[in-house]
Amino acid sequence: MTAGRPRAVDKTAALESALMVFWEKGFEGASLNDLTRSMNINRSSLYTIFGSKQDLFYLALDHYVSGRPFLSSEILNKDTAREAVEEILNLSADSATDPNTPPGCLIIQGGISGGEESQFIRKELISRRNDAEHNLKQRLEKAKETGELPENSNPAVLARFITTVLEGISIQAADGATREEIQEVIDLALQLWPN
To answer: Is CB count within 10 Å lower at the N or C end of the chain?
Structure first.
């Protein structure tokens, strides 16, 4: 009896499965057995197609970001900075509480804690969060220059505040907060918008 041709792997479906495992368990908590089982492939195929576990995480992270419009810098091009921030907060809350995905946000929860093995992941996630905050700060600086924000406003502090609310949305959702409960927080945050 001759061996059959190896089964073709749907890379997108396998990557989506890996994403869900990393999102639910974090980098360190996701074992190779968890990943290969959810991706329906063996370890050899995982390494051949995706590289190392770290490479797979980065691919899953890029896949996650590409599917989340609130993480796109394009959203910052709304007519006003306040509209952009409101949409970012609402889309983040929608994603964090989506019943079809693990609660929270992979970029927040994928590497909050961990040992030596995951330090490079933590650094990557911190870098991505810092980049997002920097992009938001630039949009808020533009809003200040055009008079949308008052002259005495501080775009860096406002960007840090909004980022803190976003990260809190993820943690609250992971802890079981409902979309409605998170909306109350968003409404309060927006009441604090500088006039």
So the answer is: N
pLDDT in tens, the chain (195 residues): 445 445 677 899 999 999 999 999 989 889 999 999 999 999 999 999 999 999 999 999 999 988 877 667 778 889 999 999 999 999 999 999 999 999 999 988 877 666 777 788 989 999 999 999 999 999 999 999 999 999 999 999 999 999 999 999 999 999 999 999 999 999 999 999 998
DSSP codes joined into one string, the chain: -PPPPPPP--HHHHHHHHHHHHHHHHHHH--HHHHHHHHT--HHHHHHHH-SHHHHHHHHHHHHHHT-GGGSGGGGGSSSHHHHHHHHHHHHHHHHT-TTS-SS-HHHHSSSS--GGGHHHHHHHHHHHHHHHHHHHHHHHHHHHTTSS-TT--HHHHHHHHHHHHHHHHHHHHTT--HHHHHHHHHHHHHT---
